[in-house]
Structures
1.
Amino acid sequence: MRYLALDVGDKTIGLAASDPTGCLARPVGTLKRTDADSDFAALRCTADDLEAETIVVGYPVRIDGQAGEASRRMDRFARRLRGRLDRPVLGVDERYSSLEAAEWLAGRTSRKQRFDEHALAAAMILRRFLEEGDAVVMARW
């Protein structure tokens, strides 16, 4: 099964995809956010192009694991995403994914070694899901 993972921010959405077997995660790019309709249209095209069957979104929870305002915003976004893409959407615990991405990128200077931090965070969210499965799924839409 193929997955598309999203690290959703206010200005950008980091994108990552699995391989066809659903075993490996790789960053694929970043979508600059404009308006909801354009964002969802671009995400649908990306999911179609990558033949993604399921969407995995980083689900923001507080350090103690409890939902907060950011979780509620993601709930609204994910429900709309599910309706627009007509695919299952899974919310995966995203704690520390951006920090992991920043640490991984630190000190990398060659163009070949650099990735966009948001796309890399999406890949780390997807990797966590591929490795741990339902144990890290916080929500389903």
Note: Helices lie at 36-49, 69-85, 97-105, 117-132.
2.
Amino acid sequence: MTNSNLILMLGHLMIETGDYNKAEKYFQAILHSSIPNDEEISCIYFHLGRIYRLQSDYTHAVEYLNHAYETHSRAKPLRLASAAKALNAIGILHQEQNNYQEAIEAFENVLKIYGKTIQESHPDVAGTLINLGNTYCQQERFSDALSCFNRAQTIYDCNLPTNHPNVAMLWNNLGNFYYQQLQLDSALDAYQRALAIYEKLLPPNHPDILRNQNNLLKVKSMFGDQYQSTLEWKYGVKNTLFVED
């Protein structure tokens, strides 16, 4: 691994552990105080775009992600795999702003690019399938969503350990899928599987853990008071206070 890859990986780890402000300052410092090459600049813009999206700063997110996608797409030789990752992030950006058709088009184009660059069993393909499935869920196209989730699960089962964070992400999204259809037992099981993985990998105040705990509490509230004590005994989940900073 080259020195530049190690530098970028350190910033990536800051994002994954939820330290977004520190990660933003880190990547901005690299961008302005060193001499990164064209590919490294594109990767920095990609990471900054992710950071801004995770902070719901969509104006800056789309600016940085579009820059990353365009520069990877125009590079000679083409950096198609990197362009696909940037386009996948743009699709998520559309999804979070309820621009569902734009999101679907982005994810479908990502899958087309992956079809030219990586094997169809690659975990990156599964990640985009999950994103596409989530978008279908938001449109209440549940049959299409389940097809995407099942394909993603097959890929992960063959390629990732059962405690991988991507597997947790899949379980959480399956929980959302079941919750939308009021299949509460299945939703509760899926959310609990996700939380069990997250708690082994992430600090207790990580946004993914807090969101997952909140999902569990939503399901518990749907069961009614008579099941509250039973659920707390069975799943070991207590009410968690969520605040908006």
Note: Residues 233-245 have pLDDT under 50 and may be disordered.
3.
Amino acid sequence: MEVGRPINQDEILNNYPLKNAVTMNIHLRKYMLTYYKKLIRDVQQTITAIENELETKE
């Protein structure tokens, strides 16, 4: 593939390293999204636990 010219879809489908890289990128993004969702949920649970603890101390 030369630099600077448009890539057609057949070329992507026939170019396995590029196809694998695109697939890998999609899987990585899905994994990171799942990871961040879990992280956010954990942080929210921690905040809720701290709020509950503060309410019981008052």
Note: The CA atoms of residues 29 and 35 lie 10 Å apart.
4.
Amino acid sequence: MAEAVHDKFVIERRFKQAPARVFAAFATEEGKARWFSGPNESWEMVDRHFDFRVGGTEHLEGRWKSGTITRFDCSYHDIVPDGRIVYAYRMKLNGKPISVNLCSIELLPDGDGTRLLHTEHGIYLDGYEDNGSRFHGIGLQYDKLAETLPD
């Protein structure tokens, strides 16, 4: 058994939409499906389950063109409408757990828009080396969120 590696990062983004609009992109299945996925050109969804409530779960599994399968298993622990989401998730790569993470997303009013603060604590398991790919991938998802938010 290899040692677990611990990491923490923060991503900050600003959106021109109000916190309620940004929150809806996390809180509704339709809203989240618009931006929370792999890249369309190299990833296809295999399974999705969405139950956004305290105690609810979310799963997203997809297959990359290379044949690699990734799975996101999430449980929601705290939700403040239009303000905060706290969840834990486990990532699997080809069925093998590679990380367990705790996240908070804060949606703060910023003029007419929203300042999003994503704080994540990760434990990378059994020799898996993330090398910043999680930070990069979540950043790309927030780019996609910005593109898909309605005005």
Note: DSSP finds three helices and seven strands in the chain.
